[in-house]
């Protein structure tokens, strides 16, 4: 754009470049998804299609922003971990957050019919977002452990809560009162003794959330080639074993060859993957670049 006497207004913009050599985490969270679930009649306590849609949106984000090496999602939220040495948008916080958030939210609307062809999207969903920096590997691991611990606590609570409401016809207030002060062991006992549900047999995605990572895999015929894809994992991140098996995350090294059985993952990915693209981030802002319902307190 040609210089003009009005260009001085750019000096009012704040420099929001993120500190170098720190982990960048962008966390998105659905705004008022309790109402969204009710309006769209999502299954309680977990709607598999809604979770798969969230995973789809996160996969699209990872395919666009190649410096994200791990994403973790549960319920109506997703966290995206950018490499410590990421240079995307000159590490400008506002650019990173707004681009990730807008791509995720637009993907949610764009792919809605792929997962919910039997119902109309009543209104556009909204996601709030934040950028958080973690200076050490330990800080990053503790953050991800915190988010996964949230799944363990909330999903057990929600599963028990909605069984009491849906199967025993308790009101929400009555179910809340029944569970007030109970420990995990009490909730497990309620599920097993009153509803014949072994919580450990519930779908692993519900209990542990979804981890998305880039891996190099051999695609079965007729393609028959090795490709880099975003693979879903449903496992604990608490132990050192996970980080040793996926050492490229903290090491910020190249994409690791995945030698495990990919048949189930490829099947799960059949509705999640699209052709990978890479983002070309401008150095400056030139304008050209580019079940939720209840949580236990």
Automatic annotation (TrEMBL):
Catalytic activity entry: a 5'-end ribonucleotide-tRNA(His) + GTP + ATP + H2O = a 5'-end phospho-guanosine-ribonucleotide-tRNA(His) + AMP + 2 diphosphate + H(+)
Sites where the protein binds Mg(2+) 1: 29-30, 76
Source species, domain of life: Eukaryota
Family under the similarity heading: Belongs to the tRNA(His) guanylyltransferase family.
Region (Disordered): 276-297
One record GO biological process: tRNA modification
Statement: the UniProt record of this protein carries the keyword Nucleotidyltransferase: yes
Free-text cofactor note: Binds 2 magnesium ions per subunit.
Cofactor(s) listed: Mg(2+)
Task performed by this protein: Adds a GMP to the 5'-end of tRNA(His) after transcription and RNase P cleavage. This step is essential for proper recognition of the tRNA and for the fidelity of protein synthesis. Also functions as a guanyl-nucleotide exchange factor/GEF for the MFN1 and MFN2 mitofusins thereby regulating mitochondrial fusion. By regulating both mitochondrial dynamics and bioenergetic function, it contributes to cell survival following oxidative stress.
Gene3D superfamilies cross-referenced by the UniProt entry: 3.30.70.3000
InterPro entries: Thg1_C_dom, tRNAHis_GuaTrfase_cat, tRNAHis_GuaTrfase_Thg1, tRNAHis_GuaTrfase_Thg1_sf
Annotated organism of origin: Frankliniella occidentalis
Keyword Cytoplasm attributed: no
Name this protein carries in UniProt: tRNA(His) guanylyltransferase
Binding site for Mg(2+) 2: 29, 76
């Amino acid at each position: 754009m040609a210089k003009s006497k009005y260009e001085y207004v750019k000096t009012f913009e704040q420099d929001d470049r993120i500190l170098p050599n720190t982990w960048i985490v962008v966390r998105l969270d659905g705004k008022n998804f309790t109402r969204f679930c009710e309006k769209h009649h999502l299954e309680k306590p977990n709607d598999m299609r809604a979770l798969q849609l969230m995973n789809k949106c996160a996969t699209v984000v990872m395919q666009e922003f190649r410096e994200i090496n791990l994403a973790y999602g549960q319920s109506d939220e997703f966290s995206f971990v950018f490499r410590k040495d990421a240079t995307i948008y000159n590490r400008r916080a506002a650019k990173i957050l707004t681009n990730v958030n807008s791509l995720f939210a637009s993907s949610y609307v764009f792919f809605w019919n792929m997962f919910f062809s039997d119902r109309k999207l009543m209104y556009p969903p909204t996601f709030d977002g934040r950028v958080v920096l973690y200076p050490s590997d330990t800080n990053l691991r503790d953050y991800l452990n915190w988010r996964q611990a949230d799944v363990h606590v909330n999903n057990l609570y929600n599963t028990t809560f909605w069984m009491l409401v849906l199967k025993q016809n308790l009101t929400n207030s009555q179910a809340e009162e029944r569970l007030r002060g109970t420990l995990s062991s009490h909730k497990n006992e309620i599920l097993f003794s009153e509803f014949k549900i072994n919580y450990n047999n519930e779908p692993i995605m519900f209990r542990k959330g979804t981890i998305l990572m880039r891996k190099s895999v051999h695609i079965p015929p007729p393609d028959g080639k090795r490709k880099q894809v975003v693979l879903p994992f449903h496992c604990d991140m608490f132990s050192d074993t996970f980080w040793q098996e996926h050492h490229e995350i903290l090491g910020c090294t190249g994409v690791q060859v995945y030698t495990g059985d990919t048949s189930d993952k490829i099947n799960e990915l059949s509705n999640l993957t699209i052709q990978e693209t890479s983002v070309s981030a401008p150095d400056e802002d030139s304008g050209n670049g580019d079940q939720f319902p209840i949580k236990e307190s």
